[in-house]
Amino acid sequence: MDPFFTHFKEAYGSGDGYALSMTLSPLDTQSQPDRLSSFFRSTNAASAVKDFKYRILYDNTNTFKLSQDEGNGWVDVYFAYWKVTGEILNAEAATKANEKVSWISVYEGWKELTNQLIRGYTNCEFEAWTVPCLYMVGKYLRIFAIKADEGAANGTSAVTSFQDDLNPEAEKNEKLEDAARQLNRIFQLCLSDRAPLEESRKWGIYNIINLLFKTYFKLNSISLSKNILRAIQVYKGDMPGLEAFPMAHQVTFKYYVGVIYFLEENYVESERHLTEAWQLCHKDVKRNKELILTYLIPCHLLTTHTLPTLALLSDYPRLQVLFLPLSRCIKKGDLSGFDAALIAGEEEFVKRRIYLTLERGRDIALRNLLRKVFIAGGFEEAKEANATPVRRTRVPVAEFGAAISIGSKETMDNDEVECLLANMIYKSLMKGYIARERGIVVLSKGGAFPGTGI
Description:
With about 450 residues, the chain is an all-alpha fold. The protein is built from 21 helices and three strands.
């Protein structure tokens, strides 16, 4: 017990919130491989509270002095932590013995720890610099809830980095739904703090928001994320700007906001937030950059009609598999190849909810095919010897129809072709009009295919 509370005293004495939060970690460390078991065996249920109270409130070697209320609050926190440590050790022992493991008791114990910590801030005057403790309990509250719902016996390292956790097949998530409610309590605890900003719990707000986003995505309750964004807007004048928070908090927040806009089909706003997340994300965090690109690439396809380069995707083999076949077909105007690539990646596209967005890329493939027809038409005969060549702008519908039939490997009649051409003009992917009575398309001489240089 002494080594454990030595770390507590060092962290509390120096006012280091992150070091203090590590005393509440449910994991052993490389330097202390038996950290949890040593702590749990150091006392028992009958004497734990008395032991903790002595070390927190009455130990003369402490370099700090806590009030009775604050000290008792930390005693309650560490007693709850001691109890849940026993549940964690039991679950891990069962896992090693290949026995059936239930993480429900671990989740319930960790929830009690969370409740004691929340009470500490509301009733026992815990100081704002200790807010990283909320990060720790919130992070593992979510992890243990997932393990309890899934009945999994994996290590807790499975869900520790930022990820969108889209889970379209989620059905029973009783503990995770409860965890979302507890995280929302922590969110309100931070948001409603009226202390001056330099001493405010508001500095913990974006870490908790990011945990809520991850949880709502896992529950397929992404619409609830909008409530969080609205709450931030209400308190915006009383909060530090996002740029004042740690970079990791900024990147994760911008990523999730970008995905939320993406799912609402607001691709301009989505692209803005995802681009900012991409620029701020550390260059070595490949997994996070890959997740950002998963949504940023389809955004670029629709907003700027640009395709990812091989150089961009070279570090991301999974994204190469997903996007390169589609990109090649779009570039060539290969409609049947595009359809085949879309079907091949359908499972992953649907899982990431980018299928419908990528499906719109077929319009870009069709535009590129029609552009090839336009270029193949050559130039009109010059009326004067030194005149600048002008491309043929009156193209028979039948020529476009032949190209579309070949590209899609389906025979199309003139009415269907005209419908497709009218749709392209309506979407500003072509500039011109259809002269039905003459069976031609009259294209603009000043940029028949906007944005392509033709």
